[in-house]
Write a sequence for this structure.
């Protein structure tokens, strides 16, 4: 996300820092370029005007222009103002209430509301340790209620049984009764959407709101729709009232203007970002982290959190013991490493969080690094026999042809994987020779010269 905007802003600031000494004309020209970049990213014009005016006012101050690193100072000012634009601080869900916490999801049809209900339920269950009940109030879209029930079963969250002929308000009342009787911590009400905002949609949503008194009324909007998403949020806030926003399909929006405009235009906080189709592709919204990503500074905190949530610690410990204890690294271990990487979002998901990655994205594209590589390599390993996975020396020409045919790849692909594996195996042997203490001693100088 924000690929185009991030690339353009990085280029602008690289030119600034490369000049050394700056004057007001330099800052004015940079802000003009920033303004164009934001408008091309589909950020609302009033938001762009206000943002660039604030940055310029602070950036032309004497303490900035006369500083030793004026370019870096300007980048810091842009970063701080970007965080302010995005909301300054993250605002979690209001769950500090007498159970059950009632969360009503609103939105237009096609915004991904039902899958978002499942994602949010999984997040509350896995990250917050909450007992959650899902309830579909959508009696308009065919099989909408059944869809939510299937998703609930997949993620291990209970859903309200479907009763034919019930209207949304009746379903909501039954959901609250079931949540209280079942001692649930939260109940998520998935309301019906429409292709466009109309009186029927708003009246139905208002009736559910008045009946249930939700603690959170979250609007689910598709980031891909740009300024239409912002307009939708304004209308729901005016007619129903919302407590927060959940932006979906952020991973597919290269421009990102909706996220940048949303808080400033509506005054309502973004609480979550939908980053993919899977039920675990939901991130809590952190303005400072998002600002870092947009400016090419990466988001190491989110990367570490993703690793902590995705990596099987028992497998990682077993791998570490094998590395340091003299065990032989084989293709089974190699496959496990690839699976861990895929659980973390694959190469793309990890690279987007790394600092400075924007500057080399074009080179990475030229190198044809994509998610298909991991899947192809896993397929090659799966086509090997158990003996071949344990002993790479067995992989002679005839076996390579059989493996390539089984995986649906060329023999050259098998050779590349074997070469990569042997290089990694060589590194593992070097680590084993060093031993634990020797490995740590060899790593310390490479960690930036830290001193105890």
């Amino acid at each position: 996300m924000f690929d185009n905007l991030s690339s353009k802003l990085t280029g602008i600031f690289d030119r600034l820092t490369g000049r050394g000494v700056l004057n007001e004309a330099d800052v004015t020209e940079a802000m003009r370029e920033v303004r164009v970049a934001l408008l091309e990213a589909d950020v609302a014009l009033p938001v762009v005007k206000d943002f660039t005016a604030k940055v310029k006012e602070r950036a032309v101050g004497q303490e900035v222009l006369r500083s030793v690193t004026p370019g870096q100072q300007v980048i810091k000012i842009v970063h701080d103002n970007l965080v302010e634009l995005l909301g300054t601080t993250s605002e979690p869900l209001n769950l500090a209430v007498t159970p059950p916490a009632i969360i009503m999801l609103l939105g237009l049809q096609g915004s991904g509301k039902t899958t978002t209900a499942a994602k949010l339920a999984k997040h509350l269950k896995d990250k917050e340790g909450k007992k959650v009940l899902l309830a579909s109030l959508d009696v308009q879209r065919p099989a909408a209620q059944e869809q939510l029930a299937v998703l609930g079963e997949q993620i291990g969250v209970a859903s309200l049984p479907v009763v034919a002929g019930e209207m949304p308000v009746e379903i909501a009342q039954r959901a609250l009764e079931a949540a209280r009787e079942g001692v649930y911590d939260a109940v998520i009400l998935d309301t019906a959407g429409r292709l466009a905002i109309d009186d029927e949609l708003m009246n139905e949503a208002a009736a559910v709101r008045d009946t249930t008194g939700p603690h959170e009324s979250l609007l689910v909007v598709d980031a891909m729709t740009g300024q239409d998403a912002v307009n939708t949020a304004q209308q729901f806030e005016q007619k129903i009232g919302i407590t927060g926003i959940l932006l979906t399909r952020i991973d597919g929006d290269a421009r990102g203007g909706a996220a940048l405009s949303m808080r400033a235009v509506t005054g309502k906080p973004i609480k979550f970002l939908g980053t993919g189709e899977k039920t675990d592709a939901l991130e809590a919204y952190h303005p400072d982290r998002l600002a870092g990503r947009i400016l090419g500074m990466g988001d190491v905190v989110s990367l570490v959190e993703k690793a902590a949530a995705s990596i099987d610690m028992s497998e990682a410990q077993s791998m570490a013991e094998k590395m340091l204890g003299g065990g032989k690294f084989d293709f089974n271990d190699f496959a496990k490493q690839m699976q861990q990487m895929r659980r973390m979002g694959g190469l793309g998901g990890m690279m987007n969080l790394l600092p400075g990655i924007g500057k080399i994205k074009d080179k990475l594209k030229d190198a044809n690094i994509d998610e298909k590589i991991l899947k192809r390599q896993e397929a090659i390993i799966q086509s090997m026999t158990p003996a071949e996975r344990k002993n790479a020396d067995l992989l002679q020409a005839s076996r390579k042809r059989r493996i390539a045919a089984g995986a649906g790849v060329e023999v050259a692909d098998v050779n590349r994987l074997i070469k990569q594996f042997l290089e990694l195996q060589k590194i593992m042997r070097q680590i084993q020779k060093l031993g634990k203490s020797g490995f740590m001693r060899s790593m310390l100088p490479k960690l930036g010269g830290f001193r105890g």
Observations:
- Confidence is low (pLDDT under 50) at residues 298-310, 353-360, 363-369, 436-452.
- The chain has three domains: 3-86, 101-297, 304-447.
- The two ends are 39 Å apart (CA to CA).
